[in-house]
Amino acid sequence: MDHKMAPLELRDHIIGFLKENKDGALGTCMNNVPRTSPVQYFLGEELDLYILSAGGDKFNAIKDNPNVCLLVNTDYLDHRKIKGIQVFGKATTSLHEKSLQQEAMKFVPNPHLMDQRIKDLNVIKIVPEEIVYLDALETGDRTKQILRHQQVVIKEDQLTPIH
């Protein structure tokens, strides 16, 4: 890794990457069984993320366990050539907080297209607690920079050699 980023610099890299992409995998857990769901997301304030969805078991999982993880990454070339983020946080849904639909409308990328459709969709809001950022595309360096409570923590990858 070239250098440890300052919190605002890392935040800018995270926001830039999230804006460059829109697809991710949402990890939830219900009855001690993990699951992932393909989703599309958009950014709100303070790195909050919104997901619009018709429904599914992810809503039941969030009701039982609001701890979630959203993975957003580039195509997986190999274990040394990838860029992505993992957003760990607490999720709420419009099934229990009806105001989330109106809140999400403030940030949806194309609000004029969503005016009618959002009434038929549910909203998931993720408030991040920790965001793990990895950019190993150019150098293959898998050192992760973690944004937690406006502080940056470095986690160097300990790859186990295959014999």
From TrEMBL:
Transmembrane segments: none annotated. Coiled coil: none annotated. It comes from the Bacteria. It holds the Pfam family PNPOx_N. Residues 12-133 form the Pyridoxamine 5'-phosphate oxidase N-terminal domain. InterPro entries: Pyridox_Oxase_N, Split_barrel_FMN-bd. Gene3D superfamilies: Electron Transport, Fmn-binding Protein, Chain A. This is Pyridoxamine 5'-phosphate oxidase-related, FMN-binding. It comes from Alkaliphilus metalliredigens (strain QYMF). The lineage of its organism: Bacteria, Bacillati, Bacillota, Clostridia, Peptostreptococcales.
